[in-house]
Amino acid sequence: MVADAVEPLPGIAVLCFGALSARLLSAVIGVNELLLAIGLGVLMTNTVGVPDLFESGIGTHSIWLAAGIVLLGASLTVGAVLEIGSVVLVLLLVAVTATVLLVEGIARNTAGIAERFGSLLAAGAGICGVSAVIAVGGSIRAKETEIAYAAGVVLLIDAITIVVYPIVGSALGLPGTVFGIWAGISMLSTGPVVAVGFAHSDIAGQWATMTKLARNALIGAVALGYAWYYTRRGSGGAVSFGTLWSKFPKFVVGFIAFIALASAGVFSPEEQASIASAVDWLFLLAFVGLGTEIRIGSLRRTGVAPLLVVFTAILVVSALSLSVLLVIF
Length: 329
Description:
Layout: H1 2-6, H2 9-29, H3 33-47, H4 52-58, H5 61-72, H6 78-83, H7 86-109, H8 115-128, H9 130-139, H10 144-172, H11 176-186, H12 190-200, H13 202-216, H14 219-235, H15 241-247, H16 251-263, H17 269-291, H18 296-302, H19 305-328
């Protein structure tokens, strides 16, 4: 029993070292720390490999991911969703739906990408980046390699948009409200959205944050919807609640519970800040481990198609949503 508890410690220490290294490197070279964390994992597994001593501990990365998603709910309240206004909320829902359907359509009908992998890309692009990839990956029993590749695609798109969006916003002279809502609706991950929002202006940062967190709230519904779809296809008929529940990732329930607690005012601002910091570290730990699932040889066989699929969908939805926002505001 003691041996079982001690066995993962060396691998967990490796994850901690990788997470700390990614954060320090990010501060020095200005590259997204989550992208660096995945990169360090990729570097390790494709050079020296993962020794048996570290394997069980590194394998705990899925636990850290689940914990991070649960705690992420503390940053969102029902009030924050209502504050963005009905018109923006409708635009957000349309943009999310269009992104998911567009990625699914291109992935299946044009790019020849496997269905579950395409669904991971659609969820990541449509909802909240890597968090949605993980949530949906759990609900549809996707392979860890598919989850890792989809997360990598999301982070690469994040790296592109965090540079491009401020340039476009400045070139077009976008007002803070328009820029913030646009970023919240069409960019992928929460961190880059908040970063580019506040880099533009305080107003843009506030609108970007509210819009993106409202979009994040859809993660549970999307994960449940995908679980129902793939379970129904697998069974060839009606799906019972018990079957669906057995396949549904339970950490999504925790995510929703934390939204409820945050909405009830359970967490103080200091506690929310501490939780947000914990989420950052949990994701860093998890992404180092996820990176070890990516084999360069397999990635070469996958090709650039997933990246092009997501990039095309984001480009279309981004352009259309900005056009609508400029008309509204």
